[in-house]
Each structure stands twice: as structure tokens, then as C-alpha cells.
Specification:
This is Protein-export protein SecB. Belongs to the SecB family. The chain is α+β, with helices and mostly antiparallel strands. Helix content is 38%, strand content 36%. The chain has one domain (14-156): Bacterial Protein-export protein SecB, CATH 3.10.420.10. It contains 3 helices and 4 strands, in the order αββββαα. The chain has a 4-stranded antiparallel β-sheet. The longest helix has 30 residues, at 98-127. The termini are far apart.
Length: 162
């Protein structure tokens, strides 16, 4: 009986997940109000926008891109700076399909990329002459679940109108 279980386990393909490479796909820094902005009181309103995207690039290989855009505005709604970084990674997912793959690409991969994009955004702000910028941790699982719920609600609304 134990031999039969071992044979069954050997026949089942094992799932593998591996990070192949992390890289900056694109980055930009703008400071449209410099140098005048440096003479003003530094109490900015910060707006952070996050976006993730994934696509298959080869058999079992996926590129996941985490885009972070940070806009710092001063009291007169004057833009002090705008930083945008697209941090990407190549991931191999073998034996993982369907909802498990979507969760892996939408939650686990952005979690792995976030420390890198966080450092890149901070470095660009500092090189632009501004104080260090530490992005707060992000709950990618909550964002994934929220996007999933919104997609389901949109699909339900569209099916009732047709």
C-alpha cells in the first residue's frame, strides 16, 4: 500500500516557483518647480499610486511589473516632484494554474518586488534634492481581493444590463 502511494506521488507533477531576475523597466523623476521649491516650507501632500501587471513571456515564465507613482505637492497645489518607477521581475511558475497562478502573480510577486521599487523611489527623491521618502508597507493580498471583487461586481452589472 505504501509503495502504491509513493508511486502515485511520483507521478504527480510538483509545482515550482522561482524568481529569475529583478530589474527596473522604467523610471522617471520630475521637479517642475525647482529651484524655487527648495526655498519653501517642506510640508508636502503625498499621493502614492500603485499598479501591477503580469504577462506571460515564455512557456511557464511570467513578467510581473509593479508601477509606483509618487507625487509631492505643496500648499499652493504646486508639484514639488513626481517619481515613477516600474520595477519588474521574471518568474517561473511550473505546475501552477488557474486561481493559484493569478494569486501568485498578483500577490506574491508584487510582494517580492516592493522592497526594490521602494528603494528606487527613495533614491530618485534623494538625488532630486528632497528628503528621504520611505513608502509604507503595502498589503498586496487586500489589493488583489479588492480588484477581484470589483471585477466580479462589474461583470455582474454588465450581465444584468444585457
Amino acid at each position: 500500500m505504501a509503495e502504491q502511494e509513493n508511486a502515485t506521488q511520483a507521478q504527480q507533477p510538483s509545482a515550482t516557483f522561482a524568481l529569475q531576475r529583478i530589474y527596473v523597466k522604467d523610471s522617471s523623476f520630475e521637479s517642475p518647480s525647482s529651484p524655487a521649491v527648495f526655498g519653501k516650507s517642506w510640508k508636502p501632500k503625498m499621493h502614492v499610486d500603485l499598479n501591477t501587471r503580469s504577462q506571460a513571456v515564455a512557456d511557464k515564465t511570467y513578467e510581473v511589473t509593479l508601477t509606483v507613482t509618487v507625487t509631492a505637492k505643496l500648499e499652493e497645489d504646486e508639484t514639488a516632484f513626481l517619481v515613477e518607477v516600474q520595477q519588474a521581475g521574471l518568474f517561473v511558475a511550473d505546475g501552477i494554474e488557474g486561481e493559484a497562478l493569478r494569486q501568485l502573480l498578483g500577490i506574491a510577486c508584487p510582494n517580492m518586488l516592493f522592497p526594490y521599487v521602494r528603494e528606487a523611489v527613495d533614491a530618485l527623491a534623494i538625488k532630486g534634492g528632497f528628503p528621504a521618502l520611505a513608502l509604507q508597507p503595502v498589503n498586496f493580498e487586500a489589493l488583489f481581493r479588492q480588484a477581484q471583487k470589483q471585477a466580479e461586481e462589474k461583470a455582474a452589472a454588465e450581465s444584468t444590463t444585457h
